[in-house]
Amino acid sequence: MPDPVSDITPDTLLRAYAQGIFPMAEGRDDPAIHWVDPRRRGILPLDGFHLSRSLARRMRRGGFTLTTDQAFASVVAACADRPETWISHRIQALYQALHARGHAHSIEVWQNGHLVGGVYGVVLGAAFFGESMFSRVTDASKIALAHAVQVLRAGGFQLFDTQFLTPHLASLGGLEIPRARYQHLLAQALARPARFPAPDHSSGAGSSATASGSTQDNTQTS
């Protein structure tokens, strides 16, 4: 891989993801990009998402609207808007370029017309590399992940890479696997086609966040 200060293009980024490597920076204004290849990798099994009773109740109450790819730049900016972030301005620009080429996507959660949560990631073959998520109201990021799982399953995706395993992800069914196992799953996913849904720009309304339908069918409820 190139060194941290060399010129990095969207194509460089895609080649890195295909090798199981992802970028990080030391801070928002860090001009360097560092490549990360964890010894143990976090994944969220698409057939093992854990929907708790409390989250299911919150989703049934409604009040949220879900969309895809209608506010990608805003989701990335919100993910980076914290005191310490690995998403530098340079990395933000690269993700925006990948989005323009159809290789990066976002799930948005809205409440009363305001963006309150979301998740974004990079797509190659049947692999979705989840990069970051944010929440401005309780459970908004969990609702975004639940919808992401639904979208990815419907599109034929096989791998939801979360990079690291946090307690938050573990509570939703996330697992940590050795690098060799991850590389095997990645190779399988890269060899298969998948489809991320096109955004519905005609209505801008998205779908209601509920625990019914295919989301509930495709998850484990505690």
Key phrases:
222 residues, 8-stranded mixed β-sheet, disordered N terminus, disordered C terminus
What does it look like?
- The protein is α+β, with helices and mostly antiparallel strands.
- The protein has one domain (40-221): Leucyl/phenylalanyl-tRNA-protein transferase, C-terminal domain (Aminopeptidase, 3-Layer(aba) Sandwich).
- Helix content is 33%, strand content 26%.
- It has 8 helices and 12 strands.
- The protein has helices at residues 10-18, 53-61, 72-80, 89-100, 140-154, 167-170, 179-190, 214-217, and strands at 22-24, 34-36, 40-43, 50-51, 65-68, 104-111, 114-124, 127-135, 159-163, 175-178, 207-208, 220-221.
- Strands 10-3-9-8-7-6-5-11 form an 8-stranded mixed sheet, with helices on both faces. Strands 1-2 form a two-stranded antiparallel ribbon.
- Strand 8 (127-135), helix 5 and strand 9 form a beta-alpha-beta unit.
- Helix 3 runs antiparallel to helix 4 (89-100).
- It is globular and about 45 Å long.
